[in-house]
Amino acid sequence: MNETIYKQTVRALFEGRATAPQKSMILDFLSVPENQELYFLWLEEWELQNPQIIADTDPAYFRLIGKSIAPESHTPTPPATPRNWFWLMGIAASVTFLLVVTGYLFRDSILHKKYTTAYGELKSLVLQDGSRVVLNANSTLTVPRFDFGKKSREVQLSGEAEFSVTHLPNNRRFIVRTPDQLEVQVLGTEFMVYSRARGSKVVLNKGSVQLRSLKNKDTKPLVISPGDVVTVSKQGSLTLSHNQSVAAHAGWKDHHFTFQDTPVSQIADQLNETFGVRIIIADSSLSKRTLGGTFKAETADDFLQVMSDILGVRIIPGTGKTPETYTLTY
């Protein structure tokens, strides 16, 4: 992507001189989430440089209909006629329509900011209220763009993250919501939330949090204490375990994987979540074998080599497939 060309094209849109191909180019540019952040940065920069825009209506109209403008002369510009105003109203209506359509299509990007991580990537964030977040691989955190901490502190998480929430003088609650309708409410504490296709899990390090499943109305809110781990079923039921090792659940921050008699089939699921690889287990007896211990791996190949050494299995990489595929066999 040539950022300079896109920036010039976006500025042309702000100034009302973008052509139809340029507008199409901008819509393609905005279809990529990362580019939406650039768009708003350029908009803010342009607004600061142009605090007041005085429209030159006749040249704008001629540019709009594709006609050339006569060479500049020193003859005073005649006063606006009804036809001039008609042209101006038409241009204003077109611009208003474009703004409405853009606002509708990108309303979520306008109101929210998304932080994402790729497979195998970790990312540390500091939110507007001072709270800190560490995002695990293949995760997305959605945060309100305006007045975060003043009016609300609600975020949405898909994936896995550790939160260190700052307590505010106004006692504003911090709420994490997940795709499976789990709601985690806190004031100031440290905890981890896991939310993927296999289900959700909350691990509390410090303070206290309240969990509530909006999917199952029969499930009462649950308040947990440090060392507690809560797993959420697909039906929304909450299962509480006390006195768990928080460090074992937080190892991903250092690229550590901790297992305790974990079946190979579940390990394969975790590798898919973290690295985006597909694991084919050739033998049903192999899928039931278990693995225990803590292992450091920053790539799928690193971990698969460990599995090969410990379990005595062969790892056969696929060829030309997406996602990257590996077969485990004896």
UniProtKB/TrEMBL annotation:
TM annotation in the entry: 85-106
Pfam families found in the cross-reference section: FecR (PF04773), FecR_C (PF16344)
Keyword Membrane: yes
Protein name: FecR family protein
Superkingdom of origin: Bacteria
Annotated Protein FecR C-terminal domain residues: 257-314
Residues annotated as domain FecR protein: 114-210
GO molecular-function terms, A-Z: sigma factor antagonist activity
Keyword Transmembrane appears in the UniProt entry: yes
Keyword set, alphabetical order: Membrane, Transmembrane, Transmembrane helix
